[in-house]
Amino acid sequence: MASDTRQPVRVLQVIRPAVGGMKRHMLQLAAGLAPCGFQMEIACPGDADIVHDALELNIPVHPVPIVGPLHPVRDPLAIRALAEVIRERRPAIVHAHGFKAALIARLAARLSGRVPVVVTVHNPVLYRDMSRFARWRHVAVERWLTGMTARIITVSDSLRAELVGEYGIPGRLVTTVHNGLDLSPFLISTDRGAMRARYGIPADALVFGIAARFAPQKAMDVLVAAAGPVLERYSNAWLLLGGDGPLLETVKTQARKLRVRDRIVFS
After folding, report:
1. Which positions ≥6 away from 54 have C-beta within 8 Å?
2. Are 85 and 65 in contact (CB under 8 A)?
3. Nearest to 69 by CA among 129, 125, 112
C-alpha cells in the first residue's frame, strides 16, 4: 500500500491577548486538528498568556504585537508584522479569533497576498452601554471587512443572528459551530456536603450556579440583578458565582447592595 505523502495543511491561528474560553478553545482546536493533517501555528503577542501553553503543546508561536482595544499606532504595526509572518510561513488558511484579531488578520492577509481568512466570533461586541457612534463605526468596519472574509464562524445561533440581522452580513457567509468541550474534568465525583459546607450553604438549599469570566460579554451583572427577586421569593435558594475577571469587584459591590446578599456566594 502506498504511503500518504500529502503535506499537512498549514493553518495560522491569530488571537489577541486572551484568557478564559477563547484561549482554551483555540488551544483545543490547534491540538485536536494536528493529528488530522493540519499543521497549526499561532500568531499572538509574545508576552500573551497563551504562549507558554502553546509551546508546551509543540505549537509554533509567532510574536505579533496585537493589543485589545483599537490603537491608531500599534494596530498598523501589528498588521505589518502579521503580514510578514504570513508571507514567510505561507499558510493555506488564516484563522482569526475575536473581532480585534479578525481586523488585524484580514488586513494583513490582503496586504500579503489574499490568503483566505476564517473568523470565529466568540462573543457579542455591541454592548448595552456602547454609544450610537461606536456601534455605527463597529458595524461599518465589519461590513467593509466582510469582502475580505472567506467564512465567519459563530459559537452560538444568537451570535449568528446578530451578525446577519444587525450587521447586515450575508447569511451564506456565517455558520454556527458550537464549542466542543472535554467533559471529563466535570465528571469527577465530589463530596457535595463538604462543598456546601465550604461556602456556608445549607445542605437542603436549592443552589443555582455558574462559572464564567466576569467580563461585559458574560453579563454577570444582569444575572445578579435577575437573581435578586428570585432569591427574595424563595428563601431556600442560593446563587453561587465562580470565576474571575475585570468586573468581579463591580458585581460583588452590586450583590452587597441586595437584601439577599448573604445568599449570593462568590468562589
Report:
1. 27, 30, 42, 60, 61
2. no
3. 125
Q: How far is 251 from 96, CA to CA, in rounded Å?
A: 31
Q: Which three cell numbers stand for residue 56?
A: 508546551
Contact status, residue 16 vs residue 68, Cβ threshold 8 Å: yes
Quote the distance between the C-alpha of residue 43 and its chain's center: 16
d(CA 239, CA 253): 15
Q: How many CB atoms lie within 10 A of CB 252?
A: 15
Contacts with 108 (C-beta within 8 Å, 6 or more apart), sequence order = 78, 79, 80, 82, 83, 86, 94
Q: What angle do CA 189, 190, 195 make, to 5 degrees?
A: 160
Per run of 10 residues, the mean pLDDT along the chain (length 267 residues) is 70 86 86 89 90 90 89 93 96 94 96 92 79 88 94 95 93 94 75 87 92 86 94 95 91 95 94
pTM over 0.85: no
**Among residues 72, 68, 112, which one has the least CA distance to residue 94?**
112
